[in-house]
Amino acid sequence: MLSVIPNPPRIALPIQGTADLFPVRRVYCVGRNYAAHAREMGADPTREPPFFFMKPADALQIVPDGETVTHPYPPKTANYHHEVELVVALGRGGRDIPAEDALDHVYGYAVGLDMTRRDLQDEAKGLRRPWELGKAADASGPVGVLRPVSDIGHPSGGAITLAVDGQVRQSGDLSDMIWSVAEQIAYLSAYFALEPGDVIFAGTPEGVGAVARGQTMVAAIEGVGEIRLEVA
């Protein structure tokens, strides 16, 4: 007979400057939240309301400061894309949170990647099916060390970049977001009871593209940090 695990382990993000960890509950991701990226994906950013999808919490891959971690290329794809994103970690929850109060619910921020099996996502779009096969691969959410708001404040501007083998592919600014972090939290809280431990991937700038085994990705956000991964 199989035994039941009474307390399944939870993914937890390291917190800068401490030995503490931030246990993750849910992972929400906003789609097409930078105007130029929306256009490169064939959407109209001037008319489209925000939309969200989710990744499993155990799809996150922890990337410690100063290390180059090995990132597994997933099966069943020939078009695996990088998307650098600001990751927002909630320390307080709630329902129907007003946008003007939303940032009070943020514990901290990190650098993340929403890695995507683009060929599977495009197929799902064409068939009007869910995106999980494209978006929820194992280790498809690399995340760096969490920087508390008490240390860095709320980054509303600053460069967000992704380089592959030293060549910059994505380059934008946090101020280019269509929907701000506060607006994303407010919007989500109208549909879900948000809780401490929820994280939000806040969208990616233009320039998403494929990576191959053996290549090294460096994702960076000004004032938040940098993560390095080698695709294997």
Summarize the structure.
The chain has 6 helices and 18 strands.
Describe the protein.
There is one protein chain. This protein is an alpha+beta fold. It has helices spanning 35-40, 99-102, 118-127, 132-135, 149-152, 181-189; strands at residues 12-14, 21-23, 27-30, 52-55, 60-62, 68-71, 80-82, 84-90, 106-113, 116-117, 141-143, 147-148, 159-164, 167-173, 199-201, 209-210, 216-221, 225-231. The strands form 5 sheets. It has a 6-stranded mixed β-sheet. A 5-stranded mixed β-sheet has the order 6-18-17-13-14, with no helix packed on it. Strand 13 and strand 14 form a beta hairpin.
Helix content: 10-25%
The whole-number mean of residue pLDDT values reads 94
Net shape: globular
End-to-end distance: 37 Å
Helix count equals 6
Number of strands: 18
What radius of gyration results from the CA coordinates? 17 Å
How much β-strand is present in the residues? Answer: 25-35%
Strand count, sense and barrel status of the largest sheet are:
6 strands, mixed
**Strand order in the largest sheet:** 4-3-15-8-9-12
Please identify the structural class as seen in this structure. alpha+beta
What ranges have pLDDT less than 50 throughout 5 or more consecutive residues? none
Q: Would you list the SSEs in sequence order as H and E?
A: EEEHEEEEEHEEHHEEHEEHEEEE
